[in-house]
Amino acid sequence: MNKKEKIMNAAINFFSENGFDKSALDDIAKYAGVGKGTLYLYFKDKEDIYIKSIKYIFDKWIEKMDEVIKLDLNASEKLERYLDVNIKQITSNMTLAKILMREIPNFLLKLHKSNKMGPMKIYKKREKHLNMIIEQGINSGEFKNVNKGIMANIIIGSINSYVMKYIFHSDKICEKDFKEYKKIILGLVKKEVK
Amino acid sequence: MNKKEKIMNAAINFFSENGFDKSALDDIAKYAGVGKGTLYLYFKDKEDIYIKSIKYIFDKWIEKMDEVIKLDLNASEKLERYLDVNIKQITSNMTLAKILMREIPNFLLKLHKSNKMGPMKIYKKREKHLNMIIEQGINSGEFKNVNKGIMANIIIGSINSYVMKYIFHSDKICEKDFKEYKKIILGLVKKEVK
Amino acid sequence: MNKKEKIMNAAINFFSENGFDKSALDDIAKYAGVGKGTLYLYFKDKEDIYIKSIKYIFDKWIEKMDEVIKLDLNASEKLERYLDVNIKQITSNMTLAKILMREIPNFLLKLHKSNKMGPMKIYKKREKHLNMIIEQGINSGEFKNVNKGIMANIIIGSINSYVMKYIFHSDKICEKDFKEYKKIILGLVKKEVK
Amino acid sequence: MNKKEKIMNAAINFFSENGFDKSALDDIAKYAGVGKGTLYLYFKDKEDIYIKSIKYIFDKWIEKMDEVIKLDLNASEKLERYLDVNIKQITSNMTLAKILMREIPNFLLKLHKSNKMGPMKIYKKREKHLNMIIEQGINSGEFKNVNKGIMANIIIGSINSYVMKYIFHSDKICEKDFKEYKKIILGLVKKEVK
DNA sequence: TATGAATGAGCTTTCATTCAT
DNA sequence: GATGAATGAAAGCTCATTCAT
Questions:
Q1: CATH for the stretch B51-189
Q2: Which residues of B touch A168 (CB under 8 A)?
Q3: pTM for the full model?
């Protein structure tokens, strides 16, 4: 892991735990094992560390999702795997969960305010992925002819809800619940079998 | 409007726009038309203003939702009205939308950290409401026998997704989209008609 | 002395001794007997403290010069008194001397760079004063018909030179020297007596 | 130009424009085309670069003045040429002008504070030169029997005033003004002709 | 000899909180 | 109750200097 990555890892650690303003560069530097001045060799300022770090962890996550999309599976299997990757990944990693829940909205509003919506495209990835899966399912006749955009948003929203639940009741989330959840989501899109 | 309310209104205004840390008590006091010291007569500290203000706006919103719940309607009509109240209210009020999107998660994580989960019950209200509506639908035979908890979460998540979309593309959100959205949500729970 | 003046006095003390950048607001606040934050109640930022403080001491000095100008004296006497006020005042006050020597040029270049030349008019006061005295002398027939502007500049330059000498050899500057100096300056402008 | 000179040239460039504290060694090294560490092979620290650079440009300038002193001219011609060298040189080179106006005083106070007055002798050169010219004039009967030291200081001061005027009103300074100025300075020392 | 990545002391500035009035 | 002047801890950021290469 090079120095830039060390810094981003440290940053993510504090940002996810305390949010942007309550995270001190002093702590991030110490945790990363570098001098405070070193941060400024790799990043322009605190916001730059924040944005690049969020994007960094997001990109790693998106990679995993992209892999699923490329698999040679039918739409139902793919959607199931996709939910696995999303929920399992997130709920096995409190940091990612907190980022998703608090920092992403904060991050988007920040970008929105400063008109730097470029990086926001990372956020649209999930929407795009789900659109692709649903389209595949419709074309292959597996899925009902639902409105892709709206359905994608419903699924994303449900993932987020699930994550939020996890953060506050992580003990009560179990494999059985998750199976039930997946079954319902699949039920939303799959054609009824007579 | 008494002084405490004036302060909370001012607070909401800044918190929703700039978040907790970027909102200055100086501005809040000025906007509320009271002295800075006065804030401390009504609230313990900044966080107390934050928590009470979020709760305040939330409660007013919950009241509206409670009204719907009490109406003498069948489950489908009630769910539709409930979505109306949620989406219409939120998307006609950017402040509320931003609170929902950014401050609520932040707020919950804050409470979670400081072990003051008491106020969090306000957040469970929507879950409870939806549970009630779905239960009514199931009992009356209108709705399929879905898992209430999971379905409630899916619906809440979809509302949140919808709000986020609104914040970033408020121009593109139209009545037609909303109708389609409602039809789909209702489709999730209603029994098929032969 | 009110708080703003206390701060400016403290500021002048450090700025004259160490220059702008080597003067710490921490020290200025401590010396002034106020909290660091208090500086920002009375001034916008460090540069504002600097500019206002320089202007402050300059203005007090200009007042003294203005008094001389208003005296009912002939031009020779007035010029002599003017040199007294300039040299005596400066050389009895190392702070003023250092301000004149280092901070004023620095100050002017700063203003020049930031295009805020408004306050520079304070610097033109001496030029104006001398122009007035010389004009009076010419009109009354006491002085030769010299070029006022150039002569005023020569006199100002000579004062500055004198001050610089003082800073580095304050021990060697004596009353006798000063008398000689004044005689020469007066000799530059006064008509020869047959 | 060797590396040391390259560095001093770069240094002068920044010091004259921004002063000591606002000039970054980073920029100086880059401008000089050497590594930042290299600065420390040739100089002890930033102040050393500053002092040696000022001295360097000063020495080059003094050389020019020395040449005039050595010329086989009468005192009046020499003084005129001396003013030419001073004013023309300075006012054709904003860098030199700014050094003279701001950095020299700063430089001298710095040296004075750290008791390293050795290099200050460079500053006395002009005084010495003028003393020599005036002495020559007095001895040859061209000049009045003025106090050399004081007269030298008056002339130096007038040059400085002239330079300051130039920096702020460089457009308005013209050949005609300069001629008038020289005539007056010469008038100060030359014997009246019946 | 030459480098530039790395450092951390030191700076300015902000702002929640206090308290005398 | 109501105020706002005063505070100082805490933060982000800069940059002269070092040192492994």
A1: 1.10.357.10
A2: 108, 112, 117, 120
A3: 0.88
